[in-house]
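The authors assume throughout that readers already know how a fold can be written as discrete tokens. In essence, backbone conformation is discretised, so a fold becomes a row of integers matching the chain in length. A single example would do more here than another paragraph of explanation. For illustration, here is how one protein appears when written out as sequence plus structure tokens:

…
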Amino acid sequence: MSSAELAKSIGRELPFLRRYARALTGSQTAGDNYAAATLEAILSDRSVMDGLDPRVGLFRAFHAIWQSSGQPVAEADGGARATRAQAHLARLTPNSREALLLNSIEGLRFDQIGEIMQIGQDEASDLVRIAMDEMGRAIRGKVMIIEDETIIAMDLKGIVQALGHDVTGIARTHSAAIELAGSDRPDLILADIQLADGSSGVDAVNELLASMGEMPVIFITAFPERLLTGDRPEPAFLISKPYTEDQVSSAVSQAMFFASTEGLEAT
């Protein structure tokens, strides 16, 4: 593959590497820094991509850097939030969270995950199963849903409740979201981008975060690459439409690890 072809193929996959990195670290800044370090590593040694599908090679280069760094989560709130999250993550089986994200959010097969993590296909499958079990019973909290389509909203509510979380309510518009959050503060927000009255889910979330402080947010959009540029404040957790139940479950479980432990029930 020529340098131009390699650059083009990596460019197509870079937004999704950012998504993966942000979900691992719980931070746009930290995730994007890891993605940048991955690109630098490939530029200094193109052989890391030899013989590999471009997407697999890109994620494999990232994984090598992630492993060598000790897999830290992003610091926030003076480091206290990171300390709490790291303590939660330390109780998980090593590499299980990575395998779960690669499979459920990025849609990679077990054989591809094995190539990325340099483990066997069966071990990759086992890690995903273990992660779903461990993360699914780790933390309980309150989730607010911002979604204007009734069927989708009820589907999301069912998935969240099946994980053991409480749903504070469903808002269909910007103003309804502000009112709902004011009456019952959530631990996590699950939001669509475009709302019923033409308002923006992103604007609603930004207003909530400005008034209520930091909390994890999962955005749902049919165009994830538009929110994965690294050029402006962007979400750490992002699900593509159409989504699957596993994607929502994985994203909610991951995001809860980066919520403040205040008001959350550890199980």
About this structure: The beta strands are 139-140, 142-146, 166-171, 188-192, 217-221, 237-240, 265-266. The chain has two domains: 3-135, 139-266.
